[in-house]
Write a structure and sequence with these properties.
68% helix, 0% strand, mainly alpha, 145 residues
């Protein structure tokens, strides 16, 4: 009986250990909008115009939304004090949108005028929600779209 209990306890300990893949999967999970502390942005409908237009595949708009949510989380973590600090964060996010261009093209779409305006409006909304009055063009300065 004692050996049985030891085996059972050992099995339980092993079963409760996270697998190496679990930790990798957790780090690759999409950012969650409900984790945003800023109430305005937690409730914001990111890329709403792109979702409303069938020209933009939803799964790619989802990737863009994830970039914007991640930007919010990065701003809350870094707590930028100056526009230059904010621009560093928004430029990183903009470059992630640049990386999506090929995927849009491969799916019969592109980041064109309507998408550019929607993305820029959300960058501006994020900036304003965190108390910055930033130049929209500077927020997305490294854009290729």
């Amino acid at each position: 009986m004692k050996k049985y209990l030891m085996t059972l306890v050992t099995f339980a300990i092993i079963a409760c250990q996270p697998s190496p893949n679990t930790q990798e999967n957790n780090s690759m999970q999409e950012p969650v909008q409900t984790n945003i502390k800023n109430e305005t942005l937690r409730k914001h409908s990111f890329l709403q115009d792109m979702y409303a237009d069938d020209y933009f595949p939803d799964f790619l708009v989802d990737k863009g939304k994830a970039i914007l949510i991640q930007l919010c989380l990065e701003i809350e973590k870094a707590e930028p004090k100056t526009l230059d600090e904010l621009y560093t964060l928004t430029h990183t996010a903009t470059e992630k949108f640049n990386d999506l261009e090929d995927e849009f093209s491969e799916n019969g779409s592109e980041i064109e005028t309507a998408a550019r305006e929607n993305i820029a409006m959300d960058f501006e909304a994020i900036s304003n929600a965190y108390g910055f009055e930033a130049d929209v063009e500077e927020l997305i300065a490294p854009r290729n779209w």
